[in-house]
Amino acid sequence: MSHSPPPPKSSGSPLSGGEGGRGGEVDRLCDILQLRFTDLFASLPPHTLEPISPASPWKRLLKVLGYAGLRLVGNMFQKVRNPEQLGGKVWLYVVSQNNYDSLHFLREALPDAVMVAGQNKQIGRYNGQVNRLSLRRKLLYYGQLPGVYQSLRRTEGQRAWRFFDLIFNAVGYYEVYRRALRHYRPRAVVFANDHNDDARALLLACQAEGVPTAYVQHASVSTNFPPLGFDLSLLEGQDALDKYRQCGPIAGRVELVGMPKADAFLVRRNRAPAVRRVAVACNTLDDTAAITSALDYLLAQFPDLTFTLRPHPGDTRDFSFLDTRHPALQFSDARQQNVFEFLSEHDALIAADTSTHLEATLLNLASVYFRFGTHGLTKDYYGYVAHGLIERANSLPALGEWLRQVQLAKPADLYQRAAYYNATLGTPDEGYSQQRAARVLQEWLAEVRA
To answer: Can you give the pTM of this predicted structure?
Structure first.
């Protein structure tokens, strides 16, 4: 399915400030850091925000000094040597392990595609399998920091100081990436992330250098994301398109291709008539004490069920105390085990705000929305409950009642609820989203080359 909305108004272009001048620098950094200055980001729970930007000004200062020493200065003494040639290739740009998993199929489908990440970017278990873009020259652009910071203080107020460390980190990405694009002249850059600082900097650099850009959705999106600004966007389904339309004007062409990363697992849908194995997924938004209380309740109430806890791959908390507290509790390392592999070993999922609910439903797991904590930031963040994809439990007793019901009988057609989110579900292309996405990309690349 193709959608070609009108292009965004030029007055809102992130490059409207021009190539030079303080206005252009501020405009670019505001665009790159777009999500960092929102009410949503500022209201993240303290335990979630702390690793990103510490509450203490002294800790933020130490973080800046560490970044300057280890990254800015350290990178200058580390020459990047890539195993593959990057010139004239299609770059598959990744900022995380999940991004890699979402784009790797294109590495096989497009003969001139190469996996690319920023220098020292952590890509989990794939760290050694991606080419790197040098950031050695990033330090040279910090002369713009004082002027940019003062301008942001005027426009963003106190938040410019609160997130000064994030402003500091973002400086120079755009300029270094423009230089890399001029040097390598890639045919196109394919993204799986549209809101991280470095990904947005590369997108703006591509726009300035005339390099075609494409986007492959790697997880569920929200209405808090930046507007789509790619030449081609491959979205999973109608849900993503409806949400992006609320984010702002959509640039370029849009195709609904389903979920490529799910293809290999759809034939392994859960056919169990009742729940015996329960997955519990958490992320950095979820409170440790609330997770512990929920597991205390579940393991006491359901001794005949098997429970597995899976923290998000970006969650750095130490949950080893739960192993001692509950010897029967199993664990999944998200940095080592693919999410679909994990889900295929279970019959049900308990989680709060995570796109794992959609992935679980596609595999016909019974899935329930249960919040680990009482923070007011997110309530059905992805709209899964509102659109009838999953059930909701508002308390531990309600969670227990839901689990008792699916323990007795699990519906065989839960996966059909995901049609709004996955455009290929129930069509001849079901299970062939990778081929569909690759075909659209190949056709698009042929067009932009011509």
So the answer is: 0.87
Structure tokens at 193: 């992330």
pLDDT at 448 over 70: yes
Q: Residues 228-236: what's their mean pLDDT?
A: 96
How many CA atoms within 13 Å lie on the side-chain side of 260? 29
Q: Give the model's confidence band at 436: pLDDT under 50 very low, under 70 low, under 90 confident, else very high.
A: very high
Q: How far is CA 304 from CA 270, 275, 298, 342, 344, in A?
A: 20, 11, 10, 20, 20
- Buried b or exposed e, range 365-395, using 16+ CB within 10 angstroms: bbbbbbbbbebebbeebbbbeeeebbbbbee
Q: Is the pLDDT of residue 3 over 60?
A: no
In this structure, what are the phi and psi dihedrals at residue 351, rounded to the nearest 5 degrees?
Answer: -165, 170
Long-range Cβ pairs for the range 354-357 (8 Å, 24+): 354/281, 354/283, 354/312, 355/219, 355/220, 355/382, 356/281, 357/382, 357/384, 357/389, 357/390
Q: Are 220 and 421 in contact (CB under 8 A)?
A: yes
Residues 6+ apart with CB under 8 A from 134: 75, 79, 80, 119, 176, 180
Band (222; pLDDT cuts 50, 70, 90): confident
Residue 125 backbone dihedrals phi, psi, to 5 degrees: -70, -5
> Residue 117: beta bridge partners?
132
Cα 45 to chain centroid, rounded: 19
9 burial type by CB count under 10 A (0-12 exposed, 13-18 middle, 19+ buried): exposed
| 17-25: long-range contacts, CB 8 A cutoff, minimum separation 24 | 19/208, 22/144, 22/147, 22/148, 22/151, 25/144, 25/147, 25/148
Per-residue model confidence (pLDDT) at position 399: 98
Give the model confidence (pLDDT) of 253-265 as tens digits: 999 999 999 999 9
pLDDT digits (tens, 9 = 90+) for 369-398: 999 987 656 688 899 999 999 999 999 999
43 Cβ neighbours under 8 A, 6+ residues apart: 376, 377
Tally DSSP H helices, then E strands, for the chain: 19, 14
User: Do residues 230 and 203 make contact, with C-beta atoms less than 8 angstroms apart?
Assistant: yes
Average pLDDT over residues 163-177: 95
Cα gap 49→166, rounded to integer Å: 12
Taking CA atoms, 108 is separated from 112, 266, 432, in Å, by 9, 20, 15
What backbone phi and psi angles, to 5 degrees, belong to 215?
-135, 130
Question: What's the angle, vertex CA 103, arms to CA 122 and CA 271, rounded to 5?
Answer: 105
Tell me the CA end-to-end span of the chain in Å, nearest whole number. Answer: 23
Query: Residue 51: what residue type?
Result: P
Residue indicated by tokens 């389904």: 237
